[in-house]
Amino acid sequence: MTTHALFDNSYVRLGSAFHRPTRPTPVAAPLLLKLNRPLAAELGLDIAELDGADGAAVLSGNRVLSGAEPIAAAYAGHQFGNFVPQLGDGRAILLGEVVDRNGRRRDIQLKGSGPTPFSRGGDGRAAIGPVLREYLVSEAMAALGVPTTRALAAVATGEPVYREVALPGAILTRVASSHIRVGTFQFFAARGDEASITRLADYVIERHYPKAAGAPNPYRALLEGVCARQAALVAHWMRIGFIHGVMNTDNMSIAGETIDYGPCAFMDTYDPATVFSSIDRTGRYAYANQPRIAQWNLARLAETLLARLDPDESRAVEIAHEILAGFAETFQTAQLDGFRRKIGLRRAREEDAALIGDLLACMAQEGADFTLTFRGLGAAAESAEADTALRALFADPAAFDAWAQRWRIRLALEEETPAERRAAMDAVNPALIPRNHLVEAALSAARDGDLAPFERLNAALVDPFHVDPGDADLAALPPMPEAAYRTFCGT
Ligand code: AMP
Ligand code: MG
User: Of 39, 95, 160, 366, which has the most beta carbons under 10 Å away?
Assistant: First the structure.
């Protein structure tokens, strides 16, 4: 394989405090389930070599490429608010970094490749369902324009994994800007290892926030940068109805990408209190809580950087508070701007927040589908004839009519032609999301050896702002209400 020449493993060079060398544990019968060819090409990998039996050996960890220096990374984290001083890669192994065709440094990681020094009694493995689920959802997020880790490949291991029942095992090859988390900083803070925090912060500045290096206080600029990216990220989640489901500090990427797809899911019916994860009993990570949880996580990051914000401790705390308040402000602005565009408004007016809030309240009250409502507004902005389909999404269609009347008065203050407005709206309101019933059907077929529904859904989600006539069923309302839909963590 020619790929070895590309590896350049800067994280390994940070030193032994940051990771443990760990080889993937070979599996019985690796079989390639899916290869992401466009992504492989972007990374400069040899697609022909990844595609066959040889590729399955590499993507399962049975063969470690020369140039790879496999490690399990150390990190800590607050899980549901409780601090765990040592988590780390328990079922993931970082093979190394490549610089892609656009000059971007990307991590290549195997997830489900066997136990590591951080496995804490776990088997280090993953089942086919969660692996294909992460594949589908992370690739859908990328196509929706959301910063995210990517899925390069899924392989079956030919071995069972034992959860409540025996399930076919699989391994995901994940690609990320990096796998550094808020919890990576917390790992060193918990040990009082200030030198490693500085080393990590300097590394993160160089790799992800190069502009911060030139700031009067680079660490302050780093914290501001992380906050800005998280604000933009969570605002993006909110406007597509995405619920991460397990926003622990170890699942928050320093680079600002969506990471660790476990119990995540998209809402069908709009309800701000929606929680899908079976372990989130208090609704800590409910849809509407995501911005404030992100801010809470960033406060944990700020704590680890405090000594670098100012030599005077109380001044340092003050600076941290200012930056965290800045997060809230940046989020609010991104949220309002994003929803303004979703309802077809380009210019900002005072009354817009109320108009948006009232639509959302009405959708919640009347059980309207989040994705179809916003998508339908594009057509309705062009022609009131499209109201028929939209009204049908509301339990009481008159509730929509009352809102639509106010909306049209507001639209009249805008400048674009109806056709221009619709095009702009259709470019921000997806027609397709990985709906829960479709994902479940695809995974259940895959467990029985039929990958066709997975392939079909994955292909359709490559262009979520456009529906082929043959894919109309993928854009439609779910056949049954999702009231009892539950997701599980165990990737
Ligand atoms: P998660 O909630 O998926 O982000 O995982 C939280 C922690 O549990 C991480 O440190 C994982 O590496 C670890 N973990 C989860 N599942 C397993 C497993 N099957 N074997 C070993 N470690 C695991
Ligand atoms: Mg995790």
Answer: 95
Indicate which ligand has the atom closest to the C-alpha of 79: 1
Ligand lying nearest the CA atom of residue 116: 1
Distance 56 CA to ligand 1 centre (A): 24
Instruction: Say how many Å lie between the CA of residue 238 and the centre of ligand 2.
Output: 21
Please tell me the number of Cα atoms within 13 Å of 322 on its side-chain side: 10
Using one digit for the tens of pLDDT, what is the confidence trace for 220-260? 999 999 999 999 999 999 999 999 999 999 999 999 999 99
For the record, the structure tokens of 318 come out as: 């003050």
| Residue in 471, 478, 454 with CA at minimum distance from that of residue 139 | 454
Q: Is the per-residue pLDDT at 480 higher than 80?
A: no
Residue nearest to atom 7 of ligand 1 (CA): 87
pTM higher than the cut 0.90: yes
Tell me the C-alpha distance between 262 and 246, whole Å. Answer: 7
Tokens of 405: 């009347």
Q: How far is the CA of 91 from the centre of ligand 1 (A)?
A: 6
Residue to mutate, 86, 87, 116, ligand 1, most ligand atoms under 8 Å from C-beta = 87
> Residue 252 CA: which ligand is closest?
2
Closest ligand 1 atom to Cα of 251: 4
Name all residues whose Cβ lies below 6 A of ligand 1.
87-91, 118-119, 122-125, 246, 250-251, 260, 262, 489, 491
pLDDT tens by residue, 9-54 = 999 999 999 999 999 999 999 999 999 999 999 999 999 989 988 9
Distance of alpha carbon 43 from alpha carbon 150, whole angstroms: 11
Q: Phi/psi at 475 (nearest 5 deg)?
A: -95, -10
Active site (annotated) includes residue 193 = no
Domain residue limits, the chain: 3-76+87-179, 183-341
Tell me the C-alpha distance between 235 and 222, whole Å.
20
> For residues 156 and 33, what is the distance between their CA atoms, to the nearest angstrom?
6
